[in-house]
Amino acid sequence: MFVRIAVATILAACALQARAEDLSAAQRAIFNTPHLANITEPMTLRYTYKHQGTLEQAFDDIVDVTITKVMPDGGRDVSFNFLSDKHHQDFPVVEGFHSNPVIMMFLEHDVAGLSSQTGGSTLYFRNRIRDAFVDRATAEEVTVPYGGEEVPATHVMLQPFLQDPMRERFEKFAEKSYEFYLAPDVPGGVYSIRVLTPGGSADKPLEENLLQFQDTVQ
After folding, report:
1. What's the distance, Cα to Cα, between the start and end of the chain in Å?
2. Range of the domain at 20
3. Of 61, 93, 198, 211, most Cβ neighbours within 10 A?
């Protein structure tokens, strides 16, 4: 029940931001873009999930995002199978979505991990990430390799805790960065999401999680 309430809260907050008149480029790319516009029939978007770092044993897994219904107004009903076994996290079905909710599921999974690792509030971390999209995120046009060629994409990057006045309470996570590659030619519009917490050396981060689009499953 708590997970359902938490996800409903963050999705509602993002929807309110997307209706605001003045959106940053990062907000438009993440919250106000119809990522699912290129999905015209029910299918599953499959993403690989790779975790590495010194905090936890490395593992590889799968995230499935299933579009169960495509409605005439362009909305999509979506269900999730987010990781497996002990890493699995339940998320509720969402209805009438235009953007790709895997972004919010990934972030909600991330803040749950932050809360567990620091003892801090999920609401606090959730709000810091959301607020960072307003004026502490960069967005630039790039290309990514897909289908044997380079396709256009938007790269969004933010470090939501770098200037946080409470950072001494979670200092080892203060330089944590979030990167999103959003590509309209990729089914579902999300090419990858990467979260990196630096460690003692460049080749041994404290934590790195990478969600990467793999393929569609009919």
Report:
1. 30
2. 2-217
3. 211
pTM of the model: 0.90
The closest of 167, 166, 183 to 175, measured between CA atoms, is 167
pLDDT (tens digit, 9 = 90+) per residue, 4-48?
Answer: 434 444 444 444 444 545 789 999 999 999 999 999 999 999 999
Give the residue ranges of DSSP H helices in 100-214. 102-118, 122-135
79 token code pair: 């269900």
Q: Is 73 helix (H, G, I), strand (E, B) or coil?
A: coil
pLDDT at residue 215 above 60?
yes
Let me know: does 41 contact 151? Beta carbons within 8 Å.
no
Around Cβ 140, how many Cβ atoms within 10 Å? 10
The CATH number of whichever domain residue 118 belongs to comes to 2.50.20
Mean pLDDT, the chain, as a whole number? Answer: 90
More confident residue, 211 or 1: 211
Tokens of 88: 């699995």
Closest CA to 29 of 144, 140, 193: 140
